[in-house]
Amino acid sequence: MTPEAAYQYLLDLPRFEKTTEAYKPGLDKIRRILHAMGDPHLRYPIAHIAGTNGKGSVSSMIAAIGTASGKRTGLYTSPHLFHFTERFRVDGQPAPPDWMARAVTYWRPLFEVEKPSFFEATTALAFGFFAEMEVEAAVIETGLGGRLDATNVIQPLVTAITQIGWDHTEQLGKTLAEIAAEKAGIIKHGASLFTMASQPEV
Questions:
Q1: Coil, strand, or helix at residue 30?
Q2: How many Å is the Cα radius of gyration of the chain?
């Protein structure tokens, strides 16, 4: 499979931008996929970032700090600007297109059985890439919300929630408090929490 064919295969999976079928609450599917892949997300410490505004910038800054300190650091964000592999980087460098083609080809039989969404599949690929690259830490940005986001299968060392605003109200809630509660779902026992959220209702 070529990099172009691999990307098209992923694009043909259900995407939230195209259909609400891509948003099916629950983490069982992504857990099954990751378990079949050898649970790559359990092999390195993680910082998990959620929020409405600024989460991508915060994620990038944390990853840059990790790299500058000498730690091999992975970064998973979405969406990409120019090329799909920008979504997962190690020390600022995107995953090689040939790696993506090889990974999609290898895991396609698993995806055919589990039928993940685009975001579930790319999240699994990112976790696998970071494990293969033997990162010493990873920064993971949520896709939508937090509590039921495909990234929320991890046990992070650090969590951060940036500013809370009105986004995806059909999925996350009709009030800022409800939206904040969904994003707060990334908070885990034993993990440090940092937040920029300052509105009284959240």
A1: helix
A2: 16
Residue keyed to tokens 């970071």: 130
Q: Identity (one letter) of the amino acid at 65?
A: I
DSSP class per residue in 63-130: HHHHHHTT--EEEE-SS-SS-GGGGEEETTEEPPHHHHHHHHHHHHHHHHHH---HHHHHHHHHHHHH
Give me 94's structure tokens: 């995107």
> Edge to edge, what strands does the sheet with 73-76 contain?
93-94, 88-90, 73-76, 137-141, 46-50, 158-161, 192-195
Q: How many domains does the chain have?
A: 1
Is residue 201 situated within a structural domain? Answer: no
> Token digits for 44?
């390195």
- For residue 19, is it within any domain? no
Give tens-digit pLDDT for 43-95.
999 999 998 878 899 999 999 999 999 999 999 998 888 889 999 999 999 99
Q: What is the pLDDT of residue 174?
A: 59
